[in-house]
Amino acid sequence: EVQLVESGGGLVQAGGSLRLSCAASGFSEDAYSIAWFRQAPGKEREGVSCISSGDGGLYYVDSVKGRFALSSDNAKNTVYLQMNSLKPEDTAVYYCAADAAWLCTYYSRTDRMERADFGSWGQGTQVTVSS
């Protein structure tokens, strides 16, 4: 069973930075995709970024391009989401999700990311950006 544990959320002022971590374990395959989603109060959960441990396929939603950066430490099975130039509209619960390796590569080519594609989820971490 895949287990995902997020950490690194908190309260930050607009323009500030945070780094979220997602520690993953229990994969039965050698390669996988790790994604970050976020859900603000009263809104749908939206895809933020995704990385494939297989070929490094990388995807960012337009609203975070140039501000967020996703990286991975395969030896630690940990993915990091560095969030810079944070805005109040980035306030949300951020969730880590995992599934097949090809997903993030597919997203990078199709410019889409779907919550329903992911079968494993973390518990979420709150990010609050004050104005």
Description:
The protein is mainly beta. It is about 5% helix and about 45% strand. The protein is built from 1 helix and 11 strands, in the order E-E-E-E-E-E-E-E-E-H-E-E. Strands 2, 4, 5, 6, 9, 10 and 11 form a 7-stranded mixed sheet that branches. It has a 4-stranded antiparallel sheet with strand order 1-3-8-7, with no helix packed on it. Strand 4 (about 35-40) and strand 5 (about 45-50) form a beta hairpin.
Q: Which features would summarize this protein structure in a list?
A:
7% helix; 7-stranded mixed β-sheet; 11 strands; mainly beta; globular; 4-stranded antiparallel β-sheet; 131 residues
How do you describe this structure in short?
The protein is globular. It contains one helix and eleven strands; from the N terminus they run E-E-E-E-E-E-E-E-E-H-E-E.
Could you outline the blueprint of secondary structure elements for this entry?
Elements: E1 3-7, E2 10-13, E3 18-25, E4 33-39, E5 46-52, E6 58-60, E7 68-73, E8 78-83, E9 92-99, H1 102-110, E10 120-121, E11 125-130
Largest sheet: 7 strands, mixed
**Which structural class do you get from the secondary structure elements?**
mainly beta
Fraction of residues in helices? under 10%
Quote the average pLDDT. Answer: 94
Return Rg in Å: 14 Å
The total count of helices amounts to 1
Please trace the helix and strand order, writing H or E for each element.
Answer: EEEEEEEEEHEE
Low-confidence stretches: none
- Report the end-to-end length measured between terminal Cα atoms: 40 Å
The total strand number stands at 11
Shape verdict: globular
Strand content: over 45%
